[in-house]
Amino acid sequence: MLQDTDYYSYLNCPFTGRKLRFLSEEELENVNERIGRGELYFYPGILVSSKLTRALVTEHQTYIYPVFNDIFYLKRETAIVAKNRTENYLKRVSQAVIDEFEMKFDLNSVNEKAIRGSSHKLEMLSPDRVTSIRANYSKTGENFVSICANDIDAIYNLVFETRYKRYIHVEYNLRKLKSVKAELKENTVLILADNGKLPFGDGSIDAMFSFDPINKYTKGDQKFIYDDFKRVLNQGAISTVLFEDDKPLHAKLFSGVDKLAKTARSVVMPWKKSKLPKIYFEGVKPVPVGANSNEIVSKTSLGGQFSQ
User: Where are the domains positioned within the chain?
Assistant: First the structure.
């Protein structure tokens, strides 16, 4: 897989928002020596024992993000740091917390026990509906991002006959990402990230589709997610966000407010032209688990997903 920092120039540190680069071979050797001496920790304070073969790093090596099995671990809790930069370096981390972390991320552990989560999934998008949605998107661009693979066929159909430079898939749950890895488009960049804190530079994404229904979260969290989507999309970008049509959708109100604000600015400052990314909201119905034997189930946990 490519190890060209320019190819991954859209990736940013979820802590600092600054650019990331790959560790050189010499730097990797030094980092692995520090791991061997027990000097490096994952952000929650858990000792790193797995050697790295590939990793991204911030300037001055403050935060290191491992790449295992071609998956970029870009959650804040999977950042590797010195002891004094851990979440609470004066607090002892319990064995229960360590065990949970190791099972959740398959780090320092061979435990492959599956984690099951929420009690529902979403209806599949019909081919006609996908075709209608796809008509909104450009066929070319730099970066196309899909988020949460609740419908693999829909992802395939959305990118069919498109020619983006990069196809990027984001999941918030490692087990789910591993389960869909082989089914995604060849050479798709696989990213494990925090919901509401995507590790992308401002305005770096041309097209995005989120299968994670935004209104399964609280109003405040919907605003947090919506603002992050808006941040990473460029001015001419197109995005589609699914929502459950039996729950309140606050995010669409935020979009309306942005459009009104843009109109007001164009009246007051007509010489200062700007474009908003277009975010479409598509309603879907929850389907009981068991309705489809090929379902993909993920865990929804605001405490685990959001980094505010």
Answer: 21-105, 120-305
pLDDT tens track for 60-108: 889 999 999 999 999 999 999 999 999 998 899 999 999 999 999 987 5
What are the residues whose beta carbons fall under 8 Å from the beta carbon of 290, sequence distance 6 or more? none
The dihedrals phi and psi of 99, each to the nearest 5 degrees, come to -60, -40
Tokens representing residue 266 in the block: 């164009």
**Up-side HSE of residue 182: CA atoms within 13 Å toward CB?**
1
| 82 neighbors 124 (Cβ within 8 angstroms) | no
- Residue type at position 12: N
Q: How close are the terminal C-alpha atoms of the chain, in Å?
A: 32
Q: Cα separation of 155 and 171, whole Å? A: 14
At the topology level, CATH places domain 120-305 in Rossmann fold (3.40.50)
Question: What is the amino acid identity at position 297?
Answer: V
Q: How far apart are CA 104 and CA 1, in angstroms?
A: 25
Q: Mean of the per-residue pLDDT values for the chain?
A: 85
To which residue do tokens 């928002």 refer?
17
Q: Comparing C-alpha atoms, which of 125, 130, 145 is closest to residue 277?
A: 145
Q: How many residues does the chain have?
A: 308
Residue identified by tokens 């041309």 is: 206
Angle in degrees, CA 2, 230, 296, rounded to 5: 65
Q: Which amino acid is at 118?
A: S
What 3-state DSSP class applies to 12? strand
Instruction: Give the model confidence (pLDDT) of 203-218 as tens digits.
Output: 999 999 999 999 999 9
* Amino acid letter, 213: P
Secondary element (H or E) of residue 97: helix 95-105
59 backbone φψ class: left, alpha, beta (φ>0; ψ -120 to 50): beta
* Sign (positive or negative) of CA dihedral 188, 191, 194, 198: negative
